[in-house]
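Input (structure):
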């Protein structure tokens, strides 16, 4: 059984809550690097795979932005990144669902909170599975002490969003309804707890 923690800060949650760790491509094979512009860049498909492997599930727009931060000259274009994603998907090395990319078959076991100084991701850039993992983790941390509204409020804080973020609040509440409807949480709406495992 996992320990239950009552702290409200992200680092004090169970091991389902981890800091968002951006990918690094510096160690990819320099022998195959693109040397235009004098700065070696790894092949784009290798860089795309590394970012998806490290940061997945990752939204396509976040992938493009992170690749732009990692690779210098030439800067990856949307068309080039889309071509690399299509190739990796066709090879079965990555999977895609609703503009989110990940390693095939990997369950979403963690929710990632922003490190201090990093911009929080907008709700549209966090996969529904990751948002649901956060909500379920909060309920697992404190069974029968959170109601639906409080669980949503704590998930907002975990992801670094304002309590006034109506779009995020609506998506999180929809995710919580989904967890309720699939039987993952019980005690609706005032004393949420994870469903008993069979």
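Output (sequence):
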């Amino acid at each position: 059984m996992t320990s239950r923690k009552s702290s409200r800060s992200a680092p004090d949650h169970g091991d389902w809550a981890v800091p968002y760790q951006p990918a690094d491509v510096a160690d990819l094979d320099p022998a195959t690097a693109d040397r235009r512009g004098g700065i070696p860049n790894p092949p784009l498909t290798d860089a795309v795979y590394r970012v998806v492997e490290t940061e997945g599930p990752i939204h396509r727009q976040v992938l493009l932005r992170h690749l732009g931060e990692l690779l210098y000259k030439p800067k990856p274009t949307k068309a080039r990144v889309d071509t690399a994603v299509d190739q990796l998907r066709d090879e079965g090395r990555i999977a895609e669902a609703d503009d989110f990319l990940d390693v095939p078959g990997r369950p979403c076991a963690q929710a990632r909170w922003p490190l201090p100084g990093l911009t929080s991701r907008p709700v549209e850039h966090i996969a529904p599975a990751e948002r649901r993992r956060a909500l379920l983790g909060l309920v697992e941390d404190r069974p029968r002490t959170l109601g639906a509204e409080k669980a949503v409020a704590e998930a907002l804080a975990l992801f670094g969003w304002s309590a006034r973020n109506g779009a995020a609040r609506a998506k999180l509440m929809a995710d919580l309804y989904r967890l309720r409807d699939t039987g993952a949480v019980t005690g609706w709406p005032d004393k949420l707890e994870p469903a008993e495992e069979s």
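Notes: The two ends are 15 Å apart (CA to CA). The first strand starts at residue 17 and ends at 19.
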